Amino acid sequence: MPIKTNDPARKTWLDVAPNSDFPIQNIPFGVFLTRDDIVTIGTRIGDYAIDLGALHQLGYFEGIPLTDDIFLQDTLNDFISDGKKTWRAVRNRISEIFKKDNPALQDNEEHKKIVLFTMDEIEMQLPVHIGDYTDFYSSKEHATNIGTMFRDPKNALMPNWLHIPVGYHGRSSTIVPSGTPVYRPMGQTLPANEKKPIFGPSKLVDFELETAFITTDANVLGEPIAVSEAEDYIFGMVLFNDWSARDIQKWEYVPLGPFLAKNFASSISPWIVTLDALEPFRVPSPAQDPQPLPYLLQNGDHSFDIHLEVDLAPEGEAPTTVTRSNFKYMYWTMAQQLSHHTVNGCKVNSGDMMGSGTISGPTPDSYGSMLELAWQGTKPVPLNNGETRTSIQDNDTVTIRGYCKNDQIRLGFGDVTSKLLPVYKSKTKR
Ligand code: MN
User: Fold this and answer.
1) How large is the average pLDDT for residues 151-167?
2) Residue pLDDT, tens place only, 356-370
3) Are strands 175-177 and 266-268 parallel, antiparallel or unpaired?
4) What is the dihedral of CA 116, 120, 122, 127, to 10 degrees?
5) Rounded to the nearest whole angstrom, what is the distance from the C-alpha of residue 135 to the centroid of ligand 1?
6) Are residues 239 and 268 in the same domain?
7) Over 80: is that where the pLDDT of 429 sits?
8) Cα–Cα distance measured from residue 421 to residue 167, given in angstroms and rounded to the nearest whole number
9) Whether residue 279 is found in the same domain as residue 236
10) 56, 142, 302, 340: which one is catalytic?
11) In this structure, what is the dihedral angle of CA atoms 9, 14, 17, 23, given to the nearest 10 degrees?
12) Does residue 142 have an active-site annotation?
């Protein structure tokens, strides 16, 4: 089935600002609370949220094999389970309903009242129930920076790094949607030149500029997913801020990797942008040398040109853009990550989420964390208000934006924004 939604000439009868991340070519999926406090699955065009549950009940998806309640759910998991053919059929239909010359919904005032919401009338929720979350470490620039800082500049990459998309299993219970504030974590750290750890608030809270992809049911236990087929099992992508406490991380990570330094919170953008929508922005990934083992070998272009930016705003102040990076810098592709993840027979479910790892570009103004931007505190990052930062301070707001642009269209992810609150204080005495 062709991806009709990608026609750059297609226009919608809805008002869409020229620089919107959500033209009719995007058609992402999300979950929101309506003005009547009902949870529904929806999409977005311009600044309109569209209730897909209501559209389905009104008969607009006739002819597409969908269960009656597929969009009347509080997560996208079941819809994602329906598979790529269904995702594509539904996006093609939405594109038809909203294209300029189609009067069916456009001229039906009663239906429009039921189906359309402005963004200020709704509240975005987590789009999927994330059963399992894995975070990779797939930016060569990032891994090289970390290795240079913490080990040896001459041997910055670990011997396995160029052969394996390195990753670890994270925790999904603390993945929150954009807008949810995050508390500064407490934990154990080892102060410089001391032998014994102390307990207290982390002094080095950081963001990680990442994207993440959401999978469908991909395999049965024991069955690997071929790298050539892996993209068929990726529903779409979100922006991902993998909040990290560097001082806790430094003390705890040996020998099993990150634990409490990473699992206190991770924030995602609420609209899942499908791989189909990103198709016009497909680009080659960096050349891989040495050549990966055969099960990871790919032909063709398997990365995407996605501009990424991070804003940092102190309380009540205008934001400063502290870094600009791009998804195309990722050394390992999403297909390689998913194929590697399942090569041992690990089962992947609908709604599982896999983080890219911090995406750093080649230049110091494109690094994907404060740890790298401020180079372990030695190069404080200037803000527009005259302050500087080497880590995130209480009541700072961090916002990641992501978009794709060519000479015909622009589409994007919107943003993921979250405020770092001071350490949590219990409201009731125990
Ligand atoms: Mn991470």
Assistant:
1) 95
2) 999 999 999 999 999
3) parallel
4) 100
5) 6
6) yes
7) no
8) 29
9) yes
10) 142
11) -50
12) yes
Instruction: For residue 368, report the distance from its CA to the centre of ligand 1, in Å.
Output: 10
For residues 268 and 238, is the Cβ–Cβ distance under 8 A?
Answer: yes
Q: What confidence tens digit (pLDDT) does each residue in 248-261 have?
A: 999 999 999 999 99
CATH number of the domain bearing residue 29: 2.30.30.230
Q: In this predicted structure, what is the pLDDT of residue 386?
A: 96
Residues 189, 197: contact at Cβ < 8 Å? Answer: yes
For residues 290 and 190, membership in a common domain is answered with: yes
Structural domain of 100: 4-124
CA 258 to ligand 1 center in whole angstroms: 9
Compute, in angstroms, the gap from residue 268 CA to the centroid of ligand 1: 12
Residues 344, 378, single domain; the answer is yes
Work out the widest C-alpha separation in the chain, in whole angstroms. Answer: 73
- Structural domain contains residue 430: no
Last residue of a domain, one of 84, 105, 124: 124
Q: How far apart are CA 201 and CA 185, in angstroms?
A: 6
* CA of residue 136 to ligand 1 center, whole Å: 7
Q: What is the pLDDT of residue 35?
A: 83
